[in-house]
């Protein structure tokens, strides 16, 4: 195969990839059409709006990261950022305790939240 034929094939492949890429990484959400950059950093913010100006303690972790325990004061917040994995299976779960009770919940699930928020509040 001549150099010219290889160049033509390369250009066709490159054109096809560039043409299809925006379709593969865009999605529609509540705001409308949005361009999603793969592996874009997600920022999570947890606010304390408990009545009675009470503190609460939160301990979040994923399979790979333990963020430790944090006491969140009245009208304060705790935040962190991360990049979701390529399979969309990133999971951050948190234990929360306050004067009203305690529990554990999934704060961020890649399958559910990946296209829903980049700043999750």
UniProtKB/TrEMBL annotation:
- What keywords is this UniProt entry annotated with? Secreted, Self-incompatibility, Signal
Q: Where in the cell is it found?
A: Secreted
The record, for InterPro entries, names: Self-incomp_S1
The transmembrane residues are none
Pfam family of this protein, just one? Self-incomp_S1
The entry assigns this protein to a family as follows: Belongs to the plant self-incompatibility (S1) protein family.
Kindly provide the name given to this protein in its UniProt entry: S-protein homolog
């Amino acid at each position: 195969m001549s150099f010219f034929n290889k160049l033509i094939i390369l250009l066709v492949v490159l054109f096809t990839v560039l043409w299809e890429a925006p379709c593969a990484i865009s999605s529609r959400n509540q705001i409308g059409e949005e361009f999603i950059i793969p592996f874009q950093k997600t920022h999570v913010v947890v606010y304390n709006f408990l009545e009675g100006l009470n503190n609460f303690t939160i301990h979040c972790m994923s399979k790979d990261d333990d963020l430790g325990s944090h006491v969140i004061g009245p009208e304060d917040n705790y935040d962190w950022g991360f990049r979701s994995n390529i399979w969309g299976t990133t999971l951050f779960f948190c234990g929360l305790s306050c004067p009203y009770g305690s529990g554990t919940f999934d704060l961020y699930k890649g399958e559910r939240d990946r296209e829903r928020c980049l700043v999750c509040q």
